[in-house]
Amino acid sequence: MSEQAADQLPIIIAHDVHKWFGDFQALKGITMEVHKGEVVVIFGPSGSGKSTFIRTLNRLEEHHQGQIIVDGIELSHDVRNIEKIRMETGMVFQQFNLFPHLTVLSNVTLAPIWVRKWKKQDAEELAMQILERVGIPEQAHKYPGQLSGGQQQRVAIARALAMQPKIMLFDEPTSALDPEMIKEVLDVMIELAQSGMTMVVVTHEMGFARGVADRMYFFDDGLIVESGTPHDIFNNPQEDRTKLFLSQIIKQ
Amino acid sequence: MTTVTESPKIMRPPEPPGFKTWVRKNLFNSWFNGLLTIVLLVLIVWAVYSLVRWIFTAADWEPVLKFPILYLVGQYPRGQLWRVGLVLSIYSLLIGFSWRKWGGVMRVLVLTYAGFFVVLAFWPANIPILTTGIRAALLANLGIIAIGYLLSGFSKITPRLILISWLFSLFLSLILLRGTSFLGLLDIVPTNLWGGLFVTLFLAIGGITLSFPFGVMLALGRRSSLPIIRVICTIFIETIRGVPLISILFLFSLILPLFLPTGIRLDRLIRALFGMTIFSAAYTAENVRGGLAAVPYGQTEAAKALGHSNFQIIALIVLPQALRAVIPPIVGQFISLFKDTTLASGVAVLELLAVGRSVLNSEPAYIGLQMEVYGFIAVVFWILSYMMSHASRRLESVLGVGER
Ligand SMILES: Nc1ncnc2c1ncn2[C@@H]1O[C@H](COP(=O)(O)OP(=O)(O)OP(=O)(O)O)[C@@H](O)[C@H]1O
Ligand SMILES: [Mg+2]
Fold first, then answer.
1. Min distance B292 CA to chain A CA atoms (Å)
2. CA distance, residue B293 to nearest chain A CA (Å)
3. What is the dihedral of CA A102, A108, A110, A116, to 10 degrees?
4. Which of A139, A155, A198, B257 is the most buried (most CB within 10 A)?
5. Position in ligand 1 atom list of the atom nearest CA A222
6. Which residues surround ligand 2, an ion (CB under 5 A)?
7. Strand pairing of A215-220 and A223-228?
């Protein structure tokens, strides 16, 4: 396979992914491809399986049927594959999930030091660069509990970026934030998208989607109901369910 | 354009009320409370007065004053006491080191330790062993503490180095005190000659340092995803917690030897230490389990997403948070372990309380002097327990940095 052909292969391939919680089926056959450098936005009503799906991509949830291939590595029970994929994907959570007993700097350097086995000094240098990039280098020696929500979420982004991932997964990164802090986090994400990062983002921030998404997926009831460019989705939605949902969230 | 506006008047918090106001508001705010205050005051004054009068006039302190060394080390050969002195001065140095590094946490410990030397150096009775030279040597330990304090100003002496030195010294002091047959360097002092506060502290410190890691492992085992480990740990914890400590001590001291292959004899003191350790480990495990449950699952998920191994997740992220949350109950557990060492007298281990009993039985003249002897022992236990709980409170507030 030539280098070019490899580049053209999607970096994330999900094919007919099914997932059950006990008897309850949360994913009913999700198929999605994401190419390198693309930004895709997933949206849809509560309980539609958005979180469940994005979490199968780094195997925080296990899928039961179908196929998921990330950067050429198939996700299976093989622990080494899971480790590899987790090193290449960063994840940002709704609730930040920072480590409260460590300073901001230690939060950001912990994985590079212990997982990538970098020297402490190198890891700290890189961490400071990344904290600069997300705009909070002066908070490096504080503890997460001393920061505002927006600052915490930016630390969480920095922590994921410090592993130098190829893919970033975001699960409703601004939903737990007060309105005045949403922008500072979105700005960081927009900068990241423009720098060419591959991103899968679960969000209802339609301004963000319109601005930087290459494609949008509307989830309902464990299925992809509709997908398309932001232009198609906002101006010309095909499905009634999409129209209804969009009208609801845009009214808010 | 600049305008000069009068700066707003700076508001001060209201002055705290004076003593008179405080008394009126808290002690005499109704006729009933006023009466209660007066009655209680009279009771307290009367109790303190009778206690002080008893201590200085009625009490006969001879069974306490005459045997300081017995209370300290039991029948430890008097010719070998220099070893105890050596160990004490090693600890003095380390306490000096630690004092500078962890001032708040160590303060009461330093005071207690220094107070011990002062009390013994000025022991108000004529004891043949406590010569002027020995008393001076005891006081010299205050100097050693100070030297340690000054030395640890050097940056070479890091907190980690101090911790390692402590662990190493605990081990070294065991060899020093027990002796070693290696090259015939130090005579062996069999543990049946050990006694008094020394044995109490041996059981307490040994029990704490062994039961803590053991208890943490049990707690982790109880949450293990492997059913066999989970079941074994659960049964172990629940069985131990369902049995009184004294029966575990009996079990270890009387029944265990029957099961050991002939030729292997476990020392009586070591058997008691094992019993205390597994008893305390089971309770520690339950405390730690509570702490583990209090760490949100999101922490584990975030760590997984970063690629941390299961071991790293436990060691770097979950355990540090869990342990911090359970410092108070664990220290409480250690304090009760410390007091429970007295139960070891039931299996013929001569700890502090047993020494007190044997002193009382040693002379007909001491019959009826239980108040003095047991009161003295209670005060010793109280000082050491208070020291622990004070250090734990300080530790909590030091470690609470940055928490919501
Ligand atoms: N661990 C679990 N056990 C059982 N059911 C679960 C579990 N996690 C999710 N579910 C169920 O699966 C469905 C999809 O959940 P998911 O969290 O993926 O929804 P979502 O689209 O992210 O919704 P939200 O917008 O509320 O975050 C829901 O009905 C949820 O109740
Ligand atoms: Mg969700």
1. 14
2. 16
3. 180
4. A155
5. 14
6. A 51
7. antiparallel
Number of domains in chain B: 1
Contact B306 A58 (CB under 8 A): no
What's the mean pLDDT in B237-250? 94
Find the length of chain B: 404
With a 6 Å cutoff on the Cβ, whether A139 touches ligand 1 is no
Q: pLDDT tens digits for A28-75?
A: 999 999 999 999 999 999 999 999 999 999 999 999 999 999 999 999
Angstrom distance (rounded) from CA A90 to CA A130: 14
Distance CA B314, CA B321 (A): 10
Q: Classify the C-alpha dihedral A61-A66-A71-A74 as positive or negative.
A: positive
For the record, the structure tokens of B181 come out as: 């047959």
Q: ipTM of the assembly?
A: 0.93
Q: Which of residues 97-136 of A touch B (CB under 8 A)?
A: 97-101, 103, 110-111, 114-115
Instruction: Let me know the angle formed at the C-alpha of B233 by B227 and B239, rounded to the nearest 5 degrees.
Output: 130
Q: pLDDT tens, A169-197?
A: 999 999 999 999 999 999 999 999 999 99
Mean pLDDT of B184-193: 84
Summarize the confidence of residues B259-268 as an average pLDDT.
75
Q: Give the Cα separation of B37 and B357 in Å (integer).
A: 40
* CATH number assigned to the domain comprising residue B205: 1.10.3720.10
A152 touching chain B per CB within 8 A = no
In a domain, B224, yes or no: yes
Residue B108 lies in a domain: no
- CA A86 to chain B, closest CA, distance in angstroms equals 5
pLDDT for res B2: 53
User: CB-CB: which of A93, A101, A114 is closest to B302?
Assistant: A93
Looking at the domain assignment, is residue B315 inside a domain?
yes
| Whether B308 and A111 lie within 8 Å, measured CB to CB | yes
For residue B219, tell me if it sits in a domain: yes
pLDDT band at A1 (very low <50, low <70, confident <90, very high): very low
